[in-house]
Each structure stands twice: as C-alpha cells, then as structure tokens.
Automatic annotation (TrEMBL):
Name of this chain's protein: TRAP transporter large permease protein
Domain TRAP C4-dicarboxylate transport system permease DctM subunit: 11-436
Subcellular location(s) of the protein: Cell inner membrane
Membrane topology: Multi-pass membrane protein
Subunit structure: The complex comprises the extracytoplasmic solute receptor protein and the two transmembrane proteins.
Entry's transmembrane regions: 12-37, 57-77, 84-109, 138-161, 173-195, 236-254, 261-279, 291-312, 333-363, 375-400, 412-436
Annotated function: Part of the tripartite ATP-independent periplasmic (TRAP) transport system.
Organism superkingdom: Bacteria
Family the entry assigns: Belongs to the TRAP transporter large permease family.
Keywords assigned by UniProt, alphabetized: Cell inner membrane, Cell membrane, Membrane, Transmembrane, Transmembrane helix, Transport
C-alpha cells in the first residue's frame, strides 16, 4: 500500500469530499484537520490559525464590494445603465449583444463578483437580447461570460484575494487588468455572429418594421437619437459615475482598494436614498440579507482555505510540487502552459477562491524563480479563473443563469461553447503578451 505524506493525503481527502458533494468550505476544513491529526498537531491550534487567516484588513473589501454591487442592482442603477447603452451602441451590428457585452464589462467595475453580476443584470440583458432575436441560451451564455469578467475588470474580488495571497499590490493589479479585460470584451463581441439563424431573421424582420424593439426603450419612445442619448445619459449618470469614483479614488491615492469598497457602499446608499429615491427600508433589508449570505459563503471558504494553506506550508508541499513543476522542462512557456492547463481543469470543478488558496502557494515560488512579473501572472490567472465561472460542471455563473431563466444548465452550457473558444484565445493572447498588462501601468508610472 502506498503511504502518502500528510499534505498529499489532505489533497486526496479534499477531492474525495468534493466528489461526495461536501460543500467546499467544509471539505477544506475537514481535510486540513485530518492532515493536522496525521502530523500530530493538537486541535488547540485551529482557533488561532483560523483567526489569523481571516484577520487581514484587505479581506474587508470582499463583503463591502458584494454589498455595494447588491445595492446598486437594487436601487435601479443596472436598469438605467442598460437603457443608456441600448441607446448609445444598440444600433451597431450585433444590437443588444453589443449592449450586453458593454454592460457586463461596465458592471464588472461596479460589482466585482461574477454570480452577483449575473443576478443583477442578467434578466434585463437576456430579455433585451431575446427581443433582438438572439436565442435565449446564447443570450444567457453571453451574460455568464461577461459577468465572469467581473473578477478581471477592477475592482475585482478575485484580484483582492490574489493580492493578499501573493503579497502583490492590489492597486497595480487593478490597473494592469483593465486592458486585458477590454481585450476579452472585444473577443466577446467577435463571438456574436455565431449566435445562429434566429439573429439574422430577427434583423430582417426588424428592418421591415423600422427598427428593433429593443432599441427603443419605453421612456424615450418617439425621441430622436440625440435627445434619447442625452435623456438616458442623465438618468444613468450616477451609475456611470460609480467606476470613476471607485477607480479614480484608488489610482489617485485618495483611498486604498479596501477603503474603496466601503466608499462604494456609501455611494450606493447615497444614490438610492437621495438621487433615485428607490431605496426603502424593505429593499435595504433585502439587499443586506442577500449580501450577507453571499459574503458568508465566500468568507467561510477563505477561512478554511487559510487552514488548508497552513498545512501546505508546514508539510512543504510548496517545495515538493513547485520543484516538480520546475523539473518538467527548461522552457518557461511549457511550464506556463502546464500551470494554465491545471488551473483551467481545476476551474471546471472548483470556485476561483478555493483554487487560488490551494494553488498559489505552489505557483508563486515558480513565478519568482523564473522571474515572471507577479502582476502579469495574476491577471492571466484571473482570466483563466473567469473561464471556469462559465465552464461546466461547476461553473457557478451557469447555475445562477439557469435559476433566473428557468432553462436547463445543459442548454446554457451549449450556448456558451462559442464564448469558451474565444475566451481561450483571449487567455492565450494575454499569457503570451505580458506587455498588455503593463500598458496602463507604464503610462501611469
């Protein structure tokens, strides 16, 4: 019988528990406790390790960004933003598909969370794309893909966690992710012609009736283009200002990324209470409950992942596995391809946060040994993890979209295949050209 060291046994137990459908957080915790027992450590250490793992100021950004995104969806910012972009770019080839892509990218700068973005903007975009003739599974897949980029487009919860684990500047990560995020958005637009015949039929019908119904939102019906654009811009102004406030404050040195999350929350409350006046006690309570539930899930994973990471460090799994990676080849591109493939496969079964806590302690020594820029690596990793959010069997965005559309996960996953192909092309481009991540960094420095 093969004897496994405690760290490797912990990894095996973790995947076994996942196979048995034990929730990720508890699978991390139970496998860690098993390894600690094997190594002879007392359970009296557990409380201190959990407390030290979660007591990090940077992690406060996670619940506050989730709350800010939830509030902004609740007070009507999402609906006004979609109306503005429908007027602005809805007449371009691709219609509501282009609108959906732009809104998803823009909402990424508001929410920072993929599943939260699907829930907030998904119903409106999917309905608009259906009116524009897109097949419903394709429309849902576009939302899943665009919302996945919420962990790439700053402010990103994923980049916050990466910055904490890799001890890399979160502000630099935010700046570096902007151009790669836009590249992924352009590739999404390039995917739109593959939507199917329904799209072309709808365009033909719309051309005969004087235009697409989705391009004439009821509040602006009967107006010319410029009056509609001006009116929709004024309605959406405070929502459009959100990323300017958040990112401008970070890059201008007014506040840190963690403080930006709190500013975003206060800003959402201000807009809902005094500008749009759509925030009532009941809607505020509902937003707090929803954000608390989402934050609890994420933070529970982070808490137990810190215990898992401690065992990885103590048992020197980092040295063993990072050494094995470096021994694979003398070619850096081969090692990078292996790392990206491992993350891509892991993303099919686990959420991004779990993958980062398990894999980064192993990958970062390799990154430093090979002299790679940790900021570029973090952005490339985040794009890879974003793909996992809409890749079955555990692509969480697919589950959220299936819930809001009442369609089967299989149909939406099939609709996501074109986006999966173009996203893999985007990942290859971003991994192969580190300069994309440095364009804005170099300009701002």
């Amino acid at each position: 019988m093969v004897e496994l060291d405690p760290g490797t046994a912990m990894v095996v137990v973790f995947f076994l528990l996942l196979f048995l459908r034990v929730p990720v957080a508890f699978a991390l915790g139970l496998s860690s406790l098993y390894a600690m027992w094997q190594m002879g450590f007392g359970l009296d250490l557990v409380g201190d390790l959990l407390a030290s793992g979660i007591a990090k100021f940077s992690l406060l950004a996670i619940p506050f960004f989730i709350l800010a995104g939830t509030l902004m969806g609740t007070v009507g910012i999402a609906e006004r933003m979609i109306r503005f972009f429908r007027v602005l770019v809805g007449a371009l080839p691709g219609g509501m598909g282009v609108v959906g892509t732009v809104v998803c990218l823009f909402w990424g700068a508001v929410s920072g969370s993929g599943p939260a973005s699907v829930a907030a903007i998904g119903p409106l975009i999917i309905r608009g794309m259906e009116e524009d003739g897109y097949p419903k599974p394709f429309a849902a897949a576009l939302v899943c893909t665009g919302a996945a980029l919420s962990i790439v487009i700053p402010p990103s919860i994923g980049l916050v966690i990466y910055g904490v684990i890799a001890e890399t500047s979160i502000a630099q990560l935010f700046i570096a992710a902007i151009i790669p995020g836009l590249v992924m958005g352009l590739l999404m637009v390039a995917t739109l012609p593959f939507a199917g015949k329904a799209r072309h039929a709808a365009m033909t019908t719309a051309a005969g009736t004087g235009g697409l119904a989705a391009l004439a939102p009821p509040p602006y019906e009967g107006m010319g283009y410029l009056p509609r654009l001006g009116r929709s811009f004024l309605d959406a102004f405070w929502g459009l200002l959100t990323p300017v406030v958040i990112l401008g404050g970070i890059y201008g040195g007014v506040f840190t990324p963690t403080e930006a999350a709190m500013v975003a929350t206060v800003y959402a409350l201000f807009v809902g209470l005094f500008i749009y006046r759509t925030l009532t006690f009941s809607t505020l309570y509902g937003a707090l409950v929803e954000a608390s539930a989402s934050s609890a899930v994420v933070m529970l994973v982070v808490t137990f992942a810190s215990l898992f990471g401690w065992v990885v460090t103590v048992d020197d799994l980092v040295g063993k596995y990072s050494g094995a990676l470096l021994a694979l080849s003398d070619n850096q591109w081969v090692i990078l391809a292996v790392i990206m493939l491992v993350v891509l496969i892991a993303g099919m079964f686990m959420d991004a946060i779990t993958i980062m806590f398990i894999a980064l302690p192993i990958f970062m020594p390799v990154v430093h040994h090979l002299g790679w820029d940790p900021v570029w690596f973090g952005v490339a990793l985040m794009v890879n993890l974003a793909i996992g959010l809409f890749t079955p069997p555990v692509g969480i965005n697919l589950f959220v979209a299936a819930n809001i559309t009442r369609m089967s996960l299989e149909k939406i996953a099939l609709g996501a295949v074109p986006f999966l192909i173009t996203s893999l092309i985007g990942l290859a481009i971003i991994a192969a050209f580190p300069g994309l991540s440095h364009l804005l960094l170099g300009w701002m420095q």
